[in-house]
Amino acid sequence: MESVAYSYGEELLSELNISISQGSFYFLTGPSGSGKTTFLKMCYGSLIPTSGNLSVFGKDSCGWSRDEIAYLRRKIGVVHQDCQFLDHLNVADNIALPIKVSARNSLSDSVNLKELLNWVGLSHRSKALPPELSGGERQRAALARAIIMSPDVILADEPTGNIDWEMSQRLIRLLIELNHMGKTVVIATHDLNLIRFTKAGVQARVLRISNKTVQLAGSDL
Amino acid sequence: MASIKNILLPDRYVNQVVPTNGFTTLLTFFTSAAMAFLIVFSLAMSFAADRLAQSWSDSLANSATLRVSAPLADLESQTAAALNVLSNTKGIASFRLLKAEEQQALLEPWFGPKVPISNLPMPRLISIEEDENGYDRVGLRLRLAAEVPSAVLDDHTRWREPLVKAAYRIWFLGWLSIGLVFFIVISMMSLVTRAALSSNKKVIEVLRLVGATDQYIAAAFVRKFAFRAFFGSMLGAFGASMTLFLLPSEADQTVILAGLRLEGFEWSWLIFVPLSFFVFTFFTARIASLSILRSLT
Predict the structure, then answer these.
(1) CA proximity to B237, closest of B41, B1, B24
(2) Where does residue B113 fall: left (phi above 0), alpha (psi -120 to 50 degrees), or beta otherwise?
(3) What are phi and psi of A108, to 5 degrees?
(4) Mean pLDDT for each 10-residue chunk of chain B (297 residues)?
(5) What is the pLDDT of residues A33-46, one digit of tens each?
(6) Which residues from chain B sit within 8 angstroms of residue A84, using beta carbons?
(7) Number of domains composing chain A
C-alpha cells in the first residue's frame, strides 16, 4: 500500500503505507469503527481505495476487472465475524463452495474436503446446516472454507468475536499452523489477550490503526 | 459460453446455491404455464383462420353463379338461353341448373324448412365451374347482356374478398397475440429475476466472497428460471393441446369454436413453445441478472 486512502464520504483511512510479505503473521488492532474491516476489504477487493496505490500479488487495484477480483478472492481466504454461510446448504457443501465456483476437479477435492473437515474437527457435523452449529463450529467451518483453495493469504475479521476463550485458542492454533505452512495471516481484532496468546506461538506483528492511518505497534503488547 | 455450459450440464452446486423457496419459483412456473396455454390457443386461432381463408379463397375462386330473374312466363326460355350461352363459352368446365330442392335448402337457414318455394317468384340459379384456363368474364357478361338480359353473373368476388380479408385479419391478430404474450413473458422474467436477486443478496455476497464470478452467479439464477419456465410452458402447452383435442370437431358446425384446432404438421409447433420459453427466459434472465450484479458492489 502506498498512500492509500478510503473515504465513505468522510475520510476513514488515509496515508496507508505498508507492505505485507509472504508468510508473515499480522494483527490489525484499533478501536471499533477505526477502519479495520475497511482495511481488510480493500485487501480482498471488496472495496477499492479512493486514492493511492494498492497492489495485491503484484497487480494494481486500479486495473482490477470484476472477474479479476473474483479470481483474487480465490487466492485470499476470508473469515468474517458473522461467518456468512448459505444457510440452505450443509457444512460440507458450504466448505466446498469455493472449489465448486472455481470449477476444479471434484474427485481430488472430495479427498481434501474430508481431511479438512477432520482438521477443523467438524467431521461429525458435515451434514449439519449452518444455523445448527455453535459459534465455535461456525468459525472453524468458515476457516475451513477460507483455506480449502489453499490460498496464499488468510484474512480474518474479528474471528473470535462471538466465541469463548477456549474456542478462540483452538482457532488461533489452526491459524498458527497455517502460518507455519507458509501462509500469510492477517487478523483484525481488539482482543489483546488473543494477541499475547498468539505471540507465544508465532512471530506476529501488530498493526494499530489510529488517526486514520496504520502504524506498527511496539513490542509491549 | 461458460454460462451456457453451466445451464445445460448438470451441476449439483449450480442448482443448489440459489434457494428454491420463494414466490418467484411458483410465479415463474405458473405464469409460464398460463402464457403457453394462451400461445397455443393463439396459434390454433391463427392456423384455423389461415385454413379458413385458404378454403374460402380456393373453393369460391373457381366457381360462379348465374342468376336468371325473369317474369314467370319468360323464366324457362331465359334459363334455356342462359344454358345455351354457357355451353358455348370456352373455359367453363361444367355448369348445372340447381334443382328446386337445392334452392329450398339454401333458403332454409332464413325461412325455415317449409317454404312454399313453388309459389314464389324465385330466380333460377346455375352453378358454374371454370376449368384451369378460366373463362373471359367480361366477354361472358357482354354475351349474357345481349342474349339473356335478365341474367346476372356473380363470380363471388364481392363475397370472397371481405371473407378472406377477415380471415387474414384473424390470422394476423393471432400472431400479434403471440408476440404480445412473449413480450409479457420477457417483462415478467425481467421483474422476477430482479426480485429474486434482490431477495438473495446474502447468497450473492457469500458467492462473491468465495470467488464466484458474475457469470457463475447469473448462471445459477438463470438456470433455475429457464428450467422453471420450460417445464411450466410444457404443462401449459399440454393443457392447451388437450383442450383443443376435446373441442367439437369441424363437422359439428352448430357449435362455436368448431374448427379451432391444430392439424398435421401444425402440432409440431407445440415443441417450439417450451423451447421458445426456455430461450426467451434464458436471455432475459441472463441480461437482467448481469445488469443487476454489475450494479451491486
Answers:
(1) B41
(2) alpha
(3) -65, -30
(4) 53 72 82 94 87 76 86 86 90 89 81 75 88 86 89 82 83 92 93 89 91 90 90 95 80 57 84 93 93 86
(5) 889 999 999 999 98
(6) 202, 205-206, 209
(7) 1
> How remote is the C-alpha of A196 from its chain's centroid?
19
pTM score, whole prediction:
0.74
Closest CA to B232 of B84, B32, B71: B32
Residue A107 is predicted with a pLDDT of 46
Contacts of residue A90 in chain B, CB cutoff 8 Å? none
* Residues in B touching A96 (Cβ below 8 Å): 13
| Residue A159 domain flag | yes
Residue A103 placed within a domain: no
Coil vs helix vs strand at B82: helix
Q: Identify whether the C-beta of residue A92 lies closer than 8 Å to the C-beta of residue A140.
A: no
Say if A78 is an interface residue toward chain B (CB within 8 Å).
Answer: yes
Residues making up chain A, counted from first to last = 221
A66 at the B interface (CB within 8 A)? yes
CA distance B196 to B22: 8
The residue of chain B with its CA nearest to that of A98 is B210
- Residue B297's nearest CA partner among B204, B221, B192 is B204
Quote the longest CA-to-CA distance of chain B.
102
Q: Is A201 part of a structural domain of the chain?
A: yes
d(CA B59, CA A61): 76
Domain that holds residue A171: 2-85+151-216
Query: Phi and psi for B223 in degrees, rounded to 5?
Result: -55, -45
Nearest by CB to A88, from B11, B19, B294: name it: B19
Cell output for B187: 417483462
